[in-house]
Amino acid sequence: MTVLLAEGTVVTSLDPPRVLRGDVLIRDGRVVEVAGRDRPPDAERLDCSGCLIIPGNVCSHHHLYSALARGMPYRLEPPASFVQILQRVWWRLDRALDLGSVFLSAWAGGADALLAGTTTIVDHHASPNAIEGSLDEIGRALAELGCRGVLCYEVTDRDGPERAIAGLEENRRFLRQRRPRLRGMVGAHASFTLSEDTLAACVELARAADAAIHVHVAEDGADERDSLARFDRRVVQRLAEAGALERGALLAHCVHVDDAEMALIREAGATVAHNARSNMNNRVGRAPLDGLGERVALGTDGIDGDMFAESRTAFWRAREEDASVAPGWVLSRVAASARLAGALVGEPLLGRIEPGAPADLVVLAYDPPTPVAGENLAGHWVFGLSARHVRDVLVEGEMVVRGRRLHVANEAELRARCREAADALWSAMDEIPAHPFEPEGGA
C-alpha cells in the first residue's frame, strides 16, 4: 500500500529538532521519501496542508488495566500514604479483573492513546485472579486497534508464591510469541514485593529470553526503607547485584534514588520512565531528573495515554524545580521514549520521519499564528500542541485514526461493553477488602 501525506509541515526529528515542508511518501509501512517530488498515481493521497506531521508518540510506562477506573467510586477510608493507595485502590482493582475486563480495559486505554497521538504503549499489567492469557487479551485489544505494544506481566510475591510463579510463566509464554506490532518484557512489581528467589527468577527468565526487565523503582520511600530493612542495601543496588539492570532495563519512577543509585543506573544504561502527573497525584515526591542522565523517557503510569499532556506537565514540573530547564528538554524526553521503544521492537528509526523509518506518524490539525521551525518547535510543543489537534494517526502506514475517529467498525459497541464492564468491576471491588500486604521498614 502506498500513501502520500501531501503538503504538510514535517517534523523529521525531535532531538535534534528538524522541520521540513513537503510530502511524506509511504510504501509498505515505511517512509520512502520526505519533501521529495515523487507522487505515484496509485498512492492514497491525504491532504495535510495547514497541518503538522510528527512521529507517533510513545508512552514508556502505562497500566492499561486502570482504564476502567475512570470515575470509579471510593468507599473506604481515604488513603494516608502511597502504600495505602495501593492497598485500598489498585491492589483491589487488579484482583477484580477477569480476562474479559482485561481485554476491555486494554481496548479502552489503547483507543484513548491512539486518539491522543500515541502509537506505542509500553505496558505493565497485573490481574492476580486472571493471569494466564492476560497478555494475549491485551495484545488482542491493541491488535484490533492497530497500536504497537510492549507488554509484560507484573511478577510479585504480594499475592503468594503460586501467583508469583504464574506471573513468571505468563511472561515466559508471551515472550515465546512473535506477533506483528507486539513484543514482550519481563515485568516485576517493585523491590518491596519481591523476594530474593522471585527477583532471581525474573532475572533468569530475562537472560534466557534475552529480554529486558520492566520494574517500579523507588516510587515511594517505602520501597527504599523495605530494601534497607530486609537486605541492608538500597533498591537499585539490590537490583544491580541481582542482574536486573542488564539488557536495557526499564525503571519506572526512580523518585527516591540517591546519588550512588543514579550512578548505577547511568552505568548500566538503563532507561528511567518518568511519570510526572502520577508522581504529583500520589504525592510521592519529585524525581531527581538532573542526575538520571539522558535516558529519561516519559510515561503516564496509567493516568491516560496522552503524551502531550504528560510531556507538558513534566516540563512545567521540571522548570518549577530548576529555572534553567528550557522547552527543548521536553523534546529530548519524547525522543528518548521513542528510542526506548525502537530498541524494544527492533526499529531503531522509530520516532523519526526519514527514509527507512516505520511509518508511525500523526497528522496534527495545527495551523498556529506563528511560524514553526526547528528552532522554535519546542516552544510550540509546550505552549501550543495538545491532543485536540490530532486528526489522523498511522501505524506502519496503516490509517488507525482518520478524521479524529478510530478506524474500527465496532467502536460504539465496544465502548458500550466497556461501560458495562466498568459497572461490574466496581461492584466486584465492593466485595474485596484492602490488601493486607505491608512493606518492612514502615509504609
**Alpha plus pi helix count:** 13
The CATH architecture of the largest domain would be: Alpha-Beta Barrel
Please count the beta strands (DSSP E, at least 2 residues each).
19
Fraction in beta strands: 15-25%
Task: Examine the coordinates and then state which fold CATH places here, giving the name of the CATH topology of the largest domain.
Answer: TIM Barrel
Helix content: 25-40%
CATH superfamily of the largest domain: Metal-dependent hydrolases
Please tell me the overall pLDDT.
96
CATH class annotation of the largest domain: Alpha Beta
Q: Give the N-terminus to C-terminus distance in angstroms.
A: 55 Å
The parts where pLDDT drops under 50 for at least 5 residues are: none
> What about the largest sheet?
9 strands, mixed
What structural category do the secondary elements indicate?
alpha/beta
If you had to describe this structure to a student in words, what would you say it looks like?
The protein has 2 domains: 2-56 and 350-406, Urease, subunit C, domain 1 (Roll); 57-345, TIM Barrel (Alpha-Beta Barrel), CATH 3.20.20. The chain contains 13 helices and 19 strands. Helix 8 links the parallel strand 13 and strand 14. The mean pLDDT is 96. It has 443 residues and is of the alpha/beta class. Helix 2 packs parallel to helix 3 (134-145) and helix 10 crosses helix 11.
